[in-house]
Amino acid sequence: MALYDLVIRNGHTVTEIEQKKQDVGIKDGKIIALGENLEEGERDIDATNKLILPGGIDAHCHIEQKSSSGIMTADDFYSGSVSAAFGGTTTLLPFAAQHRGQSLREVVDDYMACAKPKSVIDYGFHLIISDASDAIIGQELPAMIEDGITSFKIYMTYDNLKLNDYEILNVLAAARREQALVMVHAENHEVIRWITEKLLDQGLGDPKYHAIAHASLAEKEATHRAITLAELLDTPMLIVHVSSEAALTEIRRAQERGLKIYGETCPQYLFLTIDDLDKDGMDGAMFCCSPPPRNKENQEIIWEGLIDGSFSVFSSDHAPYRYDSSGKLSAGPKPTFDKIANGVPGLEIRMPLLFSEGVQKGRMDIHRFIDVTSSIPAKTYGLYPRKGTIAIGSDADVAIWDPDKEVEITADALHDNMDYTPYEGMVSKGWPITVISRGRIVVEDEELKVERGSGVYLKRERSEFAKPLEKFVPEMDPKKNFNAKLI
Ligand code: DUC
Ligand code: ZN
Ligand code: ZN
C-alpha cells in the first residue's frame, strides 16, 4: 500500500509566509509530508508551473438564509458550496440567522439540517443575534459557543435586526465573558431612515438612491459608536463589510491606539462603484447591497486598507438574490430602492478577482493575498492551523492555481444559482483548476468530483483574536473605580 493517498508534485506551495518548490503528501485527509521527490502516492497530480495555495475560507456569506424581510437566498448549501469550491474556497462560514422569537438552538439545528446533506466543502456557522434578551444572551449563547459557534454578528440597522446601544453592551459583556468574537454591521439606522424618507418624498426611488441613503457618514458614525462601546467593555470586535474611507479611518484609529478592532472588506468595494447603481431602468438593483459601493477614489483607499493590513479579512458577503420576483424584485417590478433585497453574489469570484487584480497586477503580495483570503480568517475564527495554511498536520485543503489561465466571468460560467453576476465580462488572470478538501478532489477538469453532503461541520475553537486586552478605559477599570465590578 502506498504511503500517500495523494501526492501533488512539481508545484510551488505558497503560504502566508513562504513560497517553496516542494511536493505535498496527503494521507487520510491530512498533509503528512512536504518535500522534494516524495514517493509515489495512490494518485499523483502534476502541478508543474502551477501554484499550490491553501484553500480559501469565506468567512462571511449568506446561504439558504431567509432575510429579515422574508426573502430566501437563491443558493442553498449545495449550489453555494459548489460555487465556492470552483473559486478555490474550501471552507465556508455562513450565518445561522435568528429571527426574533426563535431560540438559538432551534436556529442552529435548522441550519445544520440544511447544510449536512448538501455542502460539498467544510462549513461552520456564525450566529446572527436579533433578540438580545437575557435568556438568549445569558443562557443560550454560551451553550452555542461551547458547541463551536464562537462568533456572532449583530446589526445596528434594519428594523427586524437592529440592537440598541444598551443591548449591544449586554452582548459585548457576554462575548467578553465567553471569549467569542462579535461581528458588527455598522450603519446608523436613523440616518438611513431619515434620508430615505426625504428622497422618497421627492419621488427619488431609483436604485441609485440606495447609495445616497446609505451615506458614508452613517457608516462612519455607527463604526465609531460600535468601537466606543467595544472599548468601554474591553471587548474585541470585527467590523464587517467596510465600504468607506470614513469607516476605515475609525478602524485604523482604534488599531493605532492598541485596541483589538478588526476590519473586513469585500469584492464589491474593490471592483464596483456607485456608478454601477446608476443603470437604466431597474438594472442598478443588481448592485444594491449594504453598505453600498462608493466612488472610485474611495475604492482606491479600500484597496490600500486591504494591502496595508488595516483590514484582516476579505470575504464575499455572498447574499444572492436573483434579478426577478423571487429576489431583487420581490416587492414588484419597479420597487423603490428601500424595497430592493440587499446583497450581491460573490462566492466564486472572491479569490480569482483579488488574485487577478491584486497579485497579478503587482498591487498585492501573494502572501498577503493568502493572509486575507485564508490564513487570517482561520486565525480570527478559531480554525488555524487545521485550516488556512499548508503544513504537516493541517487538513489537506489546497487549491492548485494556474496563474496563466484567463477566465471571463459571466453568470452562465459561474456555478451559483444566480441569474446575473455584478462582475459580468471581467476577465480574471489566474484561476484554481484543481480544488482539494481534506484530501478529496472536489473540482478537477472543470467538473465537480464529490457527492453532495461530503463536507463536514467544523466545531470551532475560541480565538485569540477574541481575547480581551484586560485594559479598560480608566473609569471602567474595576481596580481603579472603587472596586465596582460591572462585567
Ligand atoms: N448585510 C450583510 O451582511 N450582507 C448583505 C446585506 C447586509 O445588509
Ligand atoms: Zn451586514
Ligand atoms: Zn452579509
Task: Please give a structural write-up.
The protein has 487 residues and is an alpha/beta fold. It has a domain at 55-380: TIM Barrel. Helix content is 29%, strand content 20%. The chain has 12 helices and 20 strands. It has helices at residues 77-86, 104-115, 134-146, 165-178, 189-201, 209-213, 216-232, 245-256, 267-271, 296-308, 350-360, 366-380, and strands spanning 6-9, 12-14, 19-21, 23-27, 30-35, 43-46, 51-54, 56-61, 89-97, 122-123, 126-128, 151-155, 181-185, 237-239, 261-265, 313-314, 398-408, 427-437, 440-444, 447-448. The strands form 3 sheets. Strands 8, 9, 10, 11, 12, 13, 14, 15 and 16 form a 9-stranded parallel beta sheet that branches. Strands 3-2-7-17-18-19-20 form a 7-stranded mixed beta sheet. The chain has a 4-stranded mixed beta sheet with strand order 5-4-1-6, with no helix packed on it. Strand 11, helix 3 and strand 12 form a beta-alpha-beta unit. The chain is globular. Bound molecules: dihydropyrimidine-2,4(1H,3H)-dione and zinc ion (2 copies). Residues 185, 240-241 line the site of one zinc ion.
